[in-house]
Amino acid sequence: AAHHHGRNELKCVQVLFTMLLSEVLELLLPLAYLVCFLVAFYGPNRNVLGNVGADRWHFAKVDAADLGKVVASILLFASIDALSLAISAIWLWRTRAINLW
């Protein structure tokens, strides 16, 4: 019975780690995308990059006037992911006394 309990505990730790990793990546990836987008937007190849400065084929370029909206949208997305991470961490702490930090 002790062996089964240890295996069950290991499975719980693996699931918890997977959830934490997913939540953190959901926060970091939009921020990494934003950094890459801004580098592309202000970089020398802006005019040939689709969805940045080129509107050839099916792409729509982002004008300087629209940049604020794009940045705000990405930051809103990242903020929602940060809120999800915080809610998960608080819930785990209050219900299971699991500290994610």
TrEMBL record:
<keyword id="KW-0812">Transmembrane</keyword>
<protein>
    <submittedName>
        <fullName>Uncharacterized protein</fullName>
    </submittedName>
</protein>
<keyword id="KW-0472">Membrane</keyword>
<feature type="transmembrane region" description="Helical">
    <location>
        <begin position="12"/>
        <end position="42"/>
    </location>
</feature>
<keyword id="KW-1133">Transmembrane helix</keyword>
<feature type="transmembrane region" description="Helical">
    <location>
        <begin position="70"/>
        <end position="93"/>
    </location>
</feature>
